[in-house]
């Protein structure tokens, strides 16, 4: 990311000055294109910034916006370097183009791993600095003065003698300039927007709150057919035969087609499509389907966890340490259920295909997966497929599918109905929750030993599914037979332990699984932070002081732990009937510590009253968004730790919507107080790190109330 920009382009498009450059695969190489000879060409996909004659500045954002804030974050970086007025700033999605819009940490175009701000920080600042340089040079040339005499403040360009102008007045002159090899970035001490509290509003809030914004589910043009697909009720099942006669008799249903993922019903609208699907008669082939229930699977995994597994990391002689004479042995077996992502907007999208080219519009989290997947289904070159990402109503990992199954199903549907058609695919809430791609069912077998007030042994054996096996990221994620995301957080806890071992075993099932908000940390954070609390309790140590003693080489983890303890006034009296628990987790290179205050309600269920959080995520580009992400992550965590579960019976999910896949209700949301530690380090992830510490903090608070720390989640089982 620190490579100097070797070349920059000035592009003419629609009367605007368009500034763009290439940084494929994280390499600082740029591309230039000359203006078209006959009139302005369409906006070049290499562009990151577009300055219009009315002086608005539009940032083309390479990361999908589904509520986590990249539209505002990347616009903030550009605005600060340009010295723009925030009212000028706009943002829109960049088109699917891996060569131009690759995530610099991944080498592909995609949003995930809480990397949007981290990988774009310098890239977008450099784009903004280039834009400012060009405007300064253009103004100096137009006014016949030296560039050193030009200043820009709040979007107004000023020169000697009271000269003033706005960005749009200089774009014609700017097009004639040859940009330099590099331009300096603004000193952090001069930031107007970056890191400033409440200095900017979200650029997408107005359109979202007024209903103007278009999401995946809104994509439609005249003549579009709506399609819903009947999928197997069991994972791994396939269509054996079907009868569509009753479905075709439903008014509005125009066709029924079998596709690889099920049976597609095409109609003139959503309701007739759903009604037609309900009228289908389908016989399913379950010969390769999952037939077990989750209770059976968990027991099988726990039995497997008694075997050594494949070692991920170890220090010292763990078995000898566990058998130390006079030591107190502490053991716990954890079971983490399948979890659905359940974003407010289920999956869906739009596609049109003329036999030679295709255009798809949907919440594409990984265009680099989706574009070639559509091309493969339709039998056309990838460059003939245009993917236009649009706003999506949440994801939490659900849209980041390595197998591009939504894109594939979109393409299969339009292929089945034939060239020249336009299709809008809709998944209902039930489709989404039944459809899998869950957070994997996982178990941990934890063993530890304490002697003379010290933790002398720690063993963690993890068993569960890996969504990397057989996918495009297998080589990157599977290392020496261990899925790195299964053990992240467990293989390197923030504590100095003399004898330590972490091992894992990958199990197989037709149940489709996927990363879920904070990936492996969703279970490893809970297992590690509740287990260390157990060991510290056995050692007679305070949960905060005991952790700090073990963080001898973890200054950032220790800092957030100290900060949250100070914020919550740890050690002072707690209201009667309430207990407090603490947890600290590093995930996505960010550190978050949380303290939860909990009581037991009259119904016997835990009630979370307040959560304090301390965050170190490097430079907080938008502090308000950082707080919002932590607050949202806490709400997401509380709901799932207390209630979240997708049970299977004979391979079939037994929940289908928010009536039985319970989400946190507004009156159950705890008060949240967040402190952000000041930092000059580059930004790190924030979309996910608020989730992992919350569950263990709640569990550890229950222990202060004389309850057991739950080892089988969720804490509240549905009737």
Return Rg in Å.
Answer: 27 Å
What is the structural class? Answer: alpha+beta
| Share in helix | 25-40%
How confident overall, as mean pLDDT?
92
Could you name the CATH topology of the largest domain?
A: Aldehyde Oxidoreductase, domain 4
CATH architecture of the largest domain: 2-Layer Sandwich
Quaternary structure classification = single chain
What is the approximate shape?
globular
How would you characterize this protein structure?
The protein is α+β, with helices and mostly antiparallel strands and 719 residues long. It folds into 3 domains: 9-210, Aldehyde oxidase/xanthine dehydrogenase, molybdopterin binding domain (Aldehyde Oxidoreductase, domain 4, 2-Layer Sandwich), CATH 3.30.365; 217-287 and 347-426, Aldehyde Oxidoreductase, domain 4 (2-Layer Sandwich), CATH 3.30.365; 294-339 and 437-704, Aldehyde Oxidoreductase, domain 4 (2-Layer Sandwich). Helices cover 27% and strands 25% of the residues. It is built from 19 helices and 30 strands. The strands form 8 sheets. Strands 11-12-9-19-16-17-18 form a 7-stranded mixed beta sheet, with helices on both faces. The protein has a 5-stranded mixed beta sheet with strand order 1-2-3-4-5. α15 packs parallel to α19 (694-704). The longest helix has 28 residues, at 116-143. Mean pLDDT is 92; it is low at 1-14 and 21-46.
């Amino acid at each position: 990311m620190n490579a100097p920009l070797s070349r920059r382009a000035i592009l003419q498009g629609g009367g605007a000055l368009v500034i763009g450059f290439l940084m494929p695969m994280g390499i600082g190489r740029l591309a230039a294109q000359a203006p078209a000879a006959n009139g302005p060409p369409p906006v070049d996909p290499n562009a990151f910034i577009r300055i219009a004659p009315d002086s608005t500045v539009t940032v083309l954002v390479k990361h999908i916006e589904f509520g986590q804030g990249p539209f505002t974050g990347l616009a903030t970086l550009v605005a600060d370097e340009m010295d723009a007025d925030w009212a000028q700033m706009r943002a829109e999605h960049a088109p699917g183009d891996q060569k131009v819009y690759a995530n610099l940490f991944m080498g592909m175009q995609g949003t995930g791993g809480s990397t949007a701000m981290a990988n774009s920080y310098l890239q977008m600042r450099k784009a903004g600095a280039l834009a400012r340089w060009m405007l300064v040079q253009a103004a100096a040339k137009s006014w016949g003065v030296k560039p050193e005499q030009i200043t820009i403040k709040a979007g107004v360009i000023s020169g000697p003698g009271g000269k003033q102008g706005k960005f749009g007045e200089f774009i014609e002159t700017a097009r004639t300039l040859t940009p330099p090899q590099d331009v300096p970035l603004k000193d952090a001490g001069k930031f107007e927007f970056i890191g400033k509290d409440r200095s900017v509003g979200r650029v997408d809030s107005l359109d979202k709150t007024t209903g103007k914004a278009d999401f995946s589910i809104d994509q439609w043009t005249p003549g579009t057919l709506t399609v819903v697909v009947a999928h197997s009720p069991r994972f791994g099942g396939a269509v054996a035969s079907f009868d569509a006669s009753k479905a075709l008799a439903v008014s509005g249903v125009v066709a029924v087609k079998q596709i690889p993922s099920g049976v597609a019903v095409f109609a003139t609208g959503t309701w007739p499509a759903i009604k037609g699907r309900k009228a289908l008669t389908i016989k399913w082939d379950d010969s390769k389907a999952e037939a077990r229930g989750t209770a059976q699977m968990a027991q099988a995994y726990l039995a497997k966890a008694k075997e050594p597994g494949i070692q991920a990391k170890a220090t010292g002689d763990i078995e000898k340490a566990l058998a130390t004479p006079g030591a107190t042995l502490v053991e716990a077996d954890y079971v983490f259920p399948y979890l659905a992502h359940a974003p407010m907007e289920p999956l869906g999208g739009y596609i049109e295909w003329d036999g030679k080219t295709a255009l798809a519009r949907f919440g594409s989290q990984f265009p680099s997966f989706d574009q070639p997947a559509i091309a493969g289904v339709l039998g056309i070159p990838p460059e003939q497929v245009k993917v236009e990402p649009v706003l999506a109503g949440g994801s939490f990992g659900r849209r980041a599918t390595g197998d591009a199954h939504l894109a594939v199903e979109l393409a299969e549907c339009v292929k089945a109905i034939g060239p020249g058609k336009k299709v809008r695919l809709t998944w209902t809430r039930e489709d989404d929750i039944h459809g899998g791609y869950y957070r994997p069912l996982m178990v941990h077998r934890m063993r530890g030993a304490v002697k003379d007030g010290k933790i002398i042994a720690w063993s963690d054996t993890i068993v569960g599914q890996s969504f990397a096996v057989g996918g495009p990221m297998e080589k990157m994620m599977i290392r020496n037979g261990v899925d790195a995301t299964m053990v992240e957080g467990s293989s390197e806890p923030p504590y100095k332990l003399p004898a330590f071992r972490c091992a894992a075993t990958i199990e197989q099932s037709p149940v489709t699984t996927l990363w879920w908000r904070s990936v492996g940390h969703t279970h490893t954070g809970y297992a590690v932070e509740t287990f260390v609390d157990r060991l510290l309790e056995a050692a007679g140590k305070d949960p905060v002081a005991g952790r700090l003693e073990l963080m001898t080489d973890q200054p950032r983890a220790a800092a957030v732990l100290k900060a949250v303890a100070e914020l919550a006034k740890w050690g002072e009296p707690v209201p009667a009937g309430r207990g407090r628990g603490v947890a600290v987790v590093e995930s996505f290179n960010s550190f978050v510590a949380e303290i939860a205050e909990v009581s037991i309600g009259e119904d016997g269920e835990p009630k979370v009253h307040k959560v304090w959080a301390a965050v170190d995520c490097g430079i907080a580009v938008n502090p308000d968004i950082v707080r919002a992400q932590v607050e949202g992550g806490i709400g997401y965590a509380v709901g799932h730790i207390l209630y979240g579960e997708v049970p299977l019976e004979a391979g079939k999910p037994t929940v289908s919507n928010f009536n039985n896949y319970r989400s946190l209700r507004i009156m159950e949301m705890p008060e949240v107080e967040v402190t952000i530690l000041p930092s000059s380090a580059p930004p790190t992830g924030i979309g996910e790190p608020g989730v992992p510490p919350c569950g263990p903090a709640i569990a550890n608070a229950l222990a202060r109330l004389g309850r057991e720390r739950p080892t089988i989640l969720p804490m509240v089982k549905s009737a």
